[in-house]
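note to self: dont lose this again. the chain is below, predicted strucutre after it. 355 aa total, dont forget to put it in the shared folder this time
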Amino acid sequence: MPKVAIIGGGITGLTAAYLLKKKGVGVSLHDAQDRPGGVIRTTRREGFLAEHGPNSILLTSPLIMELVGDLGLGNRVTAPGDVAKNRFIVRGRRPLRLPLSPGTFLTTPLFSLRAKLRLLREPFIGRSPADAEESLGDFVRRRIGREFLEYAINPFVAGVYAGDPEMLSVRHSFPKLHALEQKYGSLIRGQIFGAKERKKRPEAGKNEAGMISFDEGLQVLTDALAGQIGPGLKLGQGVASMRRAAGGWEIVPEGGTAIPGFGAVLYAGSAHALSSMAVGNGGSADLSVLSEIHYPPVTSLVLGFRRELVGHPLDGFGVLIPEVEPFAILGVLFSSSLFPGRAPEGFVTLTCFLG
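---
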């Protein structure tokens, strides 16, 4: 069976290589970095654990735990306690708990009485044309009002995507929201009448999925995958081009000679890197349009403090900062409240995001 060349050694490329190898397919995974894992990287220093990239995995599919079990990592999984369900949003320079039930929603100071009453109109607002291109910002203002955009949607989008609701397509970035409106004519009706349908799905939505990490951070997973791939993992070897050749495909590493004999090539890198890669024979495919995809820069800063120096109980997942509030950060994860072993005894770890 012909080998498969995989370009990109992040979580996607590593998982693809592992699953293909399990099926008896030879793989050759190439990555320009000198370590596997892409943006997933964990550092342990003086008892503190810092994640350079993502901090947890959302269990949106049962396939995730199947992979973890196949790799023999079940005993290294850590899950957050009930505290993780609490989220905080800053309003008036203070972190306020995001309401989790109708009762707490009615009494929360996070939203004004006017904004709460505005929600009563939502079921009576007509749906947009199915093929209309609408930004998330326009969609939210139209259906539930500006205040929910500023103090619920904006901080969520900034925290998850480091993005701007005015630049994100609701159809493509949040297809489930778009589908709710199209099917039920209302987000509220969709939440009520779509509950039975959602329960039948094996996948879970992001708002209801559990989350996990590992005792020594997410790099445990990528290291385990890399270890299973073995000599097929080619680090420090970026790929400059790929093209069809006699009997299949060949790839050309940066500064190297062509490697032939692949039955297929799987690209698992970034869009902007693919935009400059030569693909095809002679007249290469023009992929320059991919360079127009915006990658917002984000910096994570991991801080450790003595517990008594932090006044907040840190009884939650973290706090998100709306753009309208006078702070220069997107949000803060209460890392040592989420998972054990993130800080030494008597200390806490906070992960701040700037972008």
